[in-house]
Design a protein that fits this description.
The complex is a heterotrimer. Helices cover 33% and strands 11% of the residues of chain A. Chain A has eight helices and seven strands, in the order E-E-H-E-E-E-E-E-H-H-H-H-H-H-H. Chain A has a five-stranded mixed sheet. In chain A, a hairpin with a 2-residue loop joins strand 3 and strand 4. In chain A, helix 2 runs antiparallel to helix 6. Chain A starts with a strand and ends in a 14-residue tail after the last helix. Chain B has one domain: Fumarate reductase/succinate dehydrogenase, transmembrane subunit (3 helical TM bundles of succinate and fumarate reductases). In chain B, 67% of the residues lie in helices and 0% in strands. By secondary structure, chain C is of the alpha+beta class. Helix content of chain C is 38%, strand content 14%. Chain C has a five-stranded parallel sheet with strand order 5-2-1-9-17. Classes of the chains: A alpha+beta, B mainly alpha, C alpha+beta.
Chain lengths: 259, 241, 637
């Protein structure tokens, strides 16, 4: 196969960046997309040119490191597939491909196709956890979890934190990512004590990071390699509303004042 | 060099407690405000349509209905009191709806300073993509609409109290009807995405509704659009005159 | 070098509990003053960093990935073992202990393995409390499945993403501490050397992978949780970034490296398709629960699998091992697969593959049951091969997957350098010569949550640590050495890329120090590695600068360390004149082709000591004493 690539090259966060054209030959249909880029990078190094920087690690579709927008679609045209699991047989011979980084203010470009997604980590640090200090756990089977709830929680927990939802969203919103985590933990009995503070803290941090607002286009769900549903966004909204509406528990004293 | 600094300066996460001011500041909160005011405006649109369809029952009934809006609640309420109360609620809703829309739009534009060479659309709808400019169009049209049929400033022969006459006089001119129909279609699109969006934003995705959210929203939008479009069509075709 | 395992005395079942109650504690106010450096953020690193911070220590955690959540533990599919006996099938702590030590072919330390089995119970409790969505039965109880090498169902799982879910649990606990200000996280920061002051580990030198700046971090103890070194083979199931640099650099500073030749080759991976292949993809071992492995009886039979009649198929694992069948341990399965392929009965391109067939299971259980159990694995297989396992049997072939070898540690998980700890896959301790499925997750979390947080206190409570900052001359010295190493790689400006060298090294290692080894091949390979290493130093081309984001430079540094490691692996494989577990020396096998151990001569841990550049490493032996189990020839017949 032969391909024409138009790759976004940007030397750092302050560089303006531009598309550079590369012609790649000797591409096998059995190659993964990243292996095709490996081939190109080896050729570039051979010509003493700078190779294209891109994030990748497990190449099994689970670590969430890889990701680029390929012809306008995060992770490329194949449904429910990360960039690393995309294979060249998906593309016709002679195809022209435009490769761009995730574009969002909250994901500044580090170099070329590599972006900084540490905003996601900070959203988790704000409340995306269940406080279960090591050593404090009760016997695992002492809390029963209906299979339905466990399965739905697992659907949400499948998120790999790649950021394709943000990349695909016309508003660069991170609602699907945050909703998946809020739902995963909120669906389990273990997650109930912190349910209200969790959603409020995570939403506040999400806004502070500069993500846009969700206007329910649904593009995130279409781009998500783990097929996470936007139903979880509705779930986040409901949790958030409940958290704000629910008054702080308090008791009334005999003399009529608050405790 | 002591411990290297992380690549980006982290905004240190803080555990937020649920507060009302935090709610208003958050984008999710603004969306909720938009959804609630949107539902209020939607209810108005439904009520307005139900009333306007009385135009098919003739001038007497239609004018009586218009008068009724002013006298409803009597004798407990003074003339026009409830109408003005409703108008106040509507006005506040419109202002809040627009305020929230502007805030959300600005946040979203700021969230992607550099656009894509191309971003393929797969899931989104025409209605969803036209919400922002559609909203602006509806706002401008509503101003014209009020000047035309409520205040009479741009009506060719405005007669206070004779709403039937005012309506026919205005819609007899085909460009006015055409603009009206176009505006109503924009309203229909706005309702289509807006209703579905409100289901999402207000978290109403419990079974059994959640499978039908999209369909229900679309069906309602089509019905409302058809109802409104019927009026100028009836005037132009002479069914109502 | 003296190897003191510090294994406590007393009855096996009480050792850990008594030891834990006896070791010294650090007072709460003193914990605040201690700074602990954790390198790596996988299951072991993240759980350790979070637990240490919960105890009150000040922690810095480093990882080369852009987020701690991406450490390669995330890719573990099948599950995690625990002796809960929820299935009432006769499981117990002792049975898990025994299975593990037998699975490891009696080359691990009894006390460590027993402690691991004991701790397994608490891990499941801990992870469930954190919200790990383990698979459930309809009644709401936790579900289990069975795994290779055992006859009970003790494996807990979350679809085919158990590693991901466990890591997210640990990551969330870690991020909670980051939010609380107790852990400072350094992503995209790679440890390039260890700093030892007065014989104690006092810090690390790192390179910020974004800016390229070389810097240091000083602390009171250093914990290495940097995983294994399967990438020495280039093609492995490890993530592309996995590397040996952290533990290798620690080894060069004085930490003994134990059993480097014990590397596990996993039987169920997707076969290679061409020379462009950059990594191999594992298909969870759990597939062997329902899939049947076979090859055609006739050599070179190239007919499509469905045209080969039942009578013309050889279900060789079921034939050779009637009681365990397709569920024999990984080392046995891999070797038998290689054997049938070497006989010319392999299938697929180049004959490097055997069938893993689900037709019987689909007929027995129905398509939907198989889809629920393995749906995501089937999809992954189809994406890579464009074949649907519901219609055509999968093709699988062994691939390097896990390394049992690693830094030598005592019962406290401390290496031979005071204050330097190694946990998870980075140490050698619990799996002997072969690891059983679903035990790596168990070990990583046991070390990180429940062992290291106690044992590190024993060290910190008893040593008087002087104030050492990164302005200390030792830090300056090591930073200089690291910078020089970086400069040397950049200055070579040869004609060959680090990737090309890595592939060549990997090929050598796979051929001669992979699934089976022999003395002659190993000797030849030692020479070839030395020659290739020299060529690398001269002819490598990296390009770019040191002070920038430079992925080629990162790779080059890792490959350079793989060269040195590869040499040690071959030496270790050559010296161990026996076959045990994954280490199969062709000269030492039973008439049935099974591994033939030599307990009298090799019943020890080989802990290699670095003797300086160009000098032969020194072999130290820790004899393995078995108080409870009696090493026997493993039998899965």
């Amino acid at each position: 196969m032969r391909l024409t690539l138009h790759v976004w090259r940007q030397s750092g966060p302050r560089d303006a960046g531009r598309f550079v054209r590369y012609d790649v030959t000797d591409v096998s249909p059995d190659m993964s997309f990243l292996e095709m880029l490996d081939v190109l990078n080896q050729q570039l190094l051979g010509r003493q040119e700078e190779p294209i920087a891109f994030d990748h690690d497990c190449r099994e579709g689970i670590c969430g490191a890889c990701g680029m927008v390929i012809n306008g679609r995060p992770h490329g045209p194949q449904h429910a597939t990360t960039t690393c699991q995309l294979h060249m047989r998906t593309f016709p011979d002679g195809a022209a491909l435009w490769l761009e980084p995730w574009r969002a203010r909250a994901f500044p470009v580090v170099k070329d196709l590599v972006v900084d997604r540490s905003a996601f980590d900070r959203v988790i640090a704000a409340g995306g956890f269940i406080t279960a200090r090591t050593g404090s756990a009760p016997e695992a089977n002492s809390t029963l979890v209906p299979k339905r709830d466990a399965d739905l929680a697992m659907d949400a927990a499948a998120c790999i934190g790649c950021g394709a939802c943000v990349a695909a969203c016309p508003n660069a919103s991170a609602m699907l990512f945050v909703a998946a985590k809020v739902s995963h933990l909120g669906l389990l009995p273990q997650g109930q004590p912190e349910r209200a503070t969790r959603v409020v803290s995570m939403v506040a941090q999400m806004d502070a990071e500069g993500f846009g607002a969700c206007t329910n286009h649904g593009e995130c769900m279409a781009a998500c390699p783990k097929e996470i549903s936007i139903d979880f966004i509705a779930r986040l909204n409901r949790d958030y509303l409940k958290a704000v509406a629910r008054p702080k528990p308090q008791a009334v004293k005999a003399n009529g004042g608050d405790v | 060099m002591t411990p290297p600094t992380p690549p980006t300066a982290p905004t240190s996460p803080t555990v937020a407690t649920p507060t009302r001011s935090g709610f208003v500041r958050s984008l999710v909160g603004k969306k909720v405000i938009m959804a609630v005011t949107g539902v209020i405006l939607f209810l108005f649109v439904v009520g307005h349509l139900a009333g306007n369809l009385k135009v098919f029952e003739g001038p007497a009934d239609f004018n009586a209905y218009a008068e009724g809006l002013r006298t409803v609640g009597a004798p407990f309420l003074a003339r026009g009191q409830l109408l003005w109360a409703v108008r106040a609620v509507l006005l506040v809703s419109v202002l809040l709806h627009i305020w929230a829309a502007i805030a959300v739009t600005r946040a979203s534009w700021a969230a992607r300073p550099i656009g894509y060479h191309a971003l393929t659309r797969t899931e989104t709808t025409y209605a969803a993509r036209t919400m922002r400019w559609g909203g602006v169009i509806i706002f401008l049209y509503v101003i014209y609409h009020l000047l035309d049929l409520t205040f009479g400033a741009v009506n060719p022969s405005f007669v206070p109290g004779d709403v039937y006459h005012n309506l026919v006089a205005s819609f007899e001119r085909w460009p006015v009807s055409a603009v009206y129909i176009a505006a109503v279609i924009v309203v229909g699109l706005h309702i289509d995405h807006g209703l579905w969006s409100a289901f999402q934003t207000l978290g109403l995705n419990r079974p059994p509704t959640f499978r039908w959210r999209r369909g229900i929203a679309a069906a309602i939008a089509v019905l409302i659009t058809a109802g409104y479009v019927a009026i100028p069509v009836a005037v132009l075709t002479g069914t109502v005159r | 070098m003296e190897l003191r395992s510090k294994a406590p005395a007393g009855p096996l079942a009480d050792k850990w509990e008594r030891y834990r109650s006896d070791i010294r504690l650090v007072s709460p106010t003193n914990k605040l003053k201690h700074h602990i450096i954790v390198v790596g953020s996988g299951l072991a690193g993240a759980s350790a960093a979070a637990s240490l911070a919960e105890l009150g220590y000040t922690v810095s955690c480093f990882c080369f990935q852009d987020s701690p959540r991406r450490a390669h533990s995330i890719a573990a599919q099948g599950g995690i073992n625990a002796a809960k006996n929820y299935q009432n099938d006769g499981d117990s702590v002792f049975r898990l202990f025994y299975d593990t030590i037998k699975g490891g072919d009696f080359r691990s330390r009894e006390v460590n393995v027993y402690r691991l089995a004991e701790t397994s119970l608490r891990i499941i409790d801990q992870c469930t409390a954190q919200g790990v969505p383990f698979a459930r039965e309809y009644g709401g109880l936790l579900a289990n499945r069975s795994f290779g090498g055992v006859q009970v169902a003790r494996t807990f799982y979350a679809r085919g993403q158990t590693g991901q879910q466990l890591l997210l649990g640990a990551y969330q606990a870690l991020e909670r501490q980051v939010g609380a200000g107790k852990v400072r996280m350094y992503p995209r920061t790679e440890m390039l050397d260890l700093v030892v002051v007065d014989g104690r580990a006092r810090g690390i030198v790192v390179r910020d992978l974004v800016s390229g700046a070389v810097g240091s971090s000083a602390g009171d103890a250093v914990v290495l949780a940097t995983g294994g070194y399967s990438n020495v083979y280039y093609l492995s199931t490890n993530a592309k970034g996995c590397n040996v640099t952290a533990i290798w650099r620690a080894h060069r500073r004085g930490a003994a490296f134990a059993n480097p030749c014990f590397t596990q080759i996993h039987p169920t991976c997707i076969p290679q398709t061409g020379h462009h292949q950059s990594k191999l993809t594992l298909m969870s071992e759990s597939l062997r629960n329902d899939g049947r492995i076979w090859v055609p009886k006739r050599k070179g039979d190239a007919r499509p699998p469905r045209e080969i009649q039942e009578s013309e198929r050889d279900y060789f694992l079921e034939r050779l091992y009637p009681s365990y069948g397709n569920l024999v341990p990984r080392d046995v399965a891999s070797r038998r697969v290689k054997e049938v392929c070497d006989e010319g009965r392999g299938v697929g391109p180049g004959g490097y593959g055997v069938y893993l067939d689900f037709a019987d299971a689909i007929a027995r259980l129905g398509r939907h049951v198989i889809a629920e159990r393995y749906g995501n694995l089937f999809e992954m297989y189809e994406r890579i091969t464009a074949e649907n396992p519901f219609d055509v049997p999968m093709r699988i072939y062994p691939a390097p997957h896990y390394t049992m070898g690693g830094l030598w540690v005592d019962y406290n998980l401390m290496t031979t350098i005071d204050g330097l700890y190694a946990i998870g896959e980075a140490n050698f301790s619990d799996h002997g010569a072969n690891r059983l499925g679903a035990s790596a997750l168990m070990q990583g979390l046991a070390d990180g949550y429940f062992i290291l947080p106690y044992t590190i206190g024993d060290y910190l409570a008893q040593v008087k640590l002087g104030q050492v900052g990164t302005d200390h001359t030792a830090f300056r010295q090591v930073e200089r050495e690291v910078s020089e190493r970086v400069e040397r790689l950049l200055a070579a400006r040869g004609r060959t890329t680090p990737d090309a060298f890595h592939r060549e090294l990997g090929r050598l290692m796979w051929d001669k120090c992979g699934m089976s080894r022999n003395a002659q091949g190993l000797k030849e390979t030692l020479q070839k590695i030395a020659a290739l290493g020299e060529r690398f130093a001269r002819d490598v081309y990296v390009g770019g600068k040191g002070e920038e984001f430079n992925q080629t430079l990162e790779h080059a540094g890792r490959v350079a360390d793989f060269f040195e490691l590869a040499e040690l692996m071959c030496r270790d494989a050559l010296h161990r004149e026996e076959s045990c577990g994954s280490h199969f020396r062709e000269e030492f096998q039973t008439p049935e082709g099974e591994a033939k151990r030599d307990d009298a001569r090799f019943g020890y841990v080989a802990a290699w000591e670095y003797a300086g550049a160009g000098k032969a490493p020194v072999l130290n032996k820790e004899p393995l004493e078995f108080e409870v189990v009696h090493p026997a020839q493993r039998s899965y017949v």
